[in-house]
Amino acid sequence: MKGICILGATGSIGVSTLDVVARHSNRYRVVALTANNNIDLLYDQCIVHRPDYVVVVDENKAKQFAERIATSPVSDIKVLSGAESLQQVATLDSVDSVMAAIVGAAGLLPTLAAAKAGKTVLLANKEALVMSGDIFMKAVTESGAHLLPIDSEHNAIFQCMPADYCAGQEAKEARRILLTASGGPFRTKPVEELVDVTPDQAVAHPNWDMGRKISVDSATMMNKGLELIEACLLFNMSPDKIQVVIHPQSVIHSMVDYVDGTVLAQMGNPDMRIPIAHAMAWPERFDSGAAPLNIFDVKHMDFEQPDLQRFPCLRLAIEAVEAGGIMPAVLNAANEIAVAAFLDEKVRFTDIPYIIERSMHQFEADPADTLDIVLAADSKAREVAERIVEELKR
Asked: Is a pLDDT exceeding 60 seen at residue 192?
């Protein structure tokens, strides 16, 4: 029986993880659940899964939640608050695996703490690795932690690697990664019409059910840019060996091209329970609850090269990883500010890459040698991006 801590339990990944846990209650026990402020869903999860600890980051919401729990059938649950408590529950002795599913930079410190503590880290938060890069991978190596990717693309690549592969190793026989992307909701929309895109249109992903921020990232293809940076670190490959491929059907989740000409692809329905179950059962397999892929329903599969004029955020991510140092952290911070401003209808959809690029131009690619340097760059980039948003406010 393994103890699991789910960072971001009320998000789409957290909900899917708990679905898989419920199918394998003989193998996993929920030790801790965390949420920012969605205490209604968190309460329902507590009634079903009965964790030992709950963290509600928002302190006022945490007080409300503690009062509600105190008169419930699960009154023995310990309720914690504040961002610092995320690190506390991620490193508990009773926790074997940590599902890192907090969206954005907020997930960095607890995910890094889990890695330093030698936990099995189920990494769904790409921003943590994008920001801290070599610092994160060094923590995994030094602690002996297992790092298993949850993003459907990275999990697919991991599955296509040699049987004894561990994240961070160089697979010498693999010469190229083909990182697939759906192209999002605006793959064929005339570029001149993107200026009028609304938040509701941007979050309406054609294949995947994701949170609002990630859905916007998919629409701009920043999500794929962040995944490219993450892939460089997870699979120890230079960016020139990673090719982004638009595959609208989202049936092939990524591919690995080997030196002998073999290309291995991982396929399946677009259901996040598949990579979650793979990582939770690794190195074995168990049922995810996802429907089997009916290949006859697919009929055909299309592949396209990405248009960097349509998707400038992908270009900016490539530039950031090639520059190295703090630039991926700057890119990520500016993107988070720009996307939040778009969702709040302060700026236009086409302003997102403009805000990011202007922010990046304010920084040099200084070495990201320590966590303090990374966090300082993140903070400064947010300030810069916020000022640009103020200039652009509609």
From this structure: yes
pTM listed for this prediction: 0.92
- Residue of 38, 342, 351 whose CA lies nearest to 215: 342
Residue 218: strand, helix, or coil: helix
What are 3-40's pLDDT values in tens digits?
999 999 999 999 999 999 999 999 999 999 999 889 99
Is there a binding annotation on residue 38?
yes
CATH number of the domain enclosing 212: 1.10.1740.10
Residues 6+ apart with CB under 8 A from 246: 180, 181, 182, 183, 187, 303, 304, 305, 306
151 is in an annotated binding site: yes
Q: What CATH number is given to the structural domain containing 100?
A: 3.40.50.720
Residue 276 lies in a domain: no
Q: How many domains does the chain have?
A: 2
**CB neighbours of residue 262 within 10 Å:** 11
Judge whether 205 is annotated as a binding position: yes
pLDDT digits (tens, 9 = 90+) for 76-120: 999 999 999 999 999 999 999 999 999 888 899 999 999 999 999
Consult the annotation and say whether 172 binds a ligand.
Answer: no
> Per the annotation, does 125 bind a ligand?
yes
Check whether 11 is labelled as a binding-site residue.
yes
Binding residue per annotation — 269? no
Which structural domain, as residue segments, surrounds residue 364? 168-269+297-392
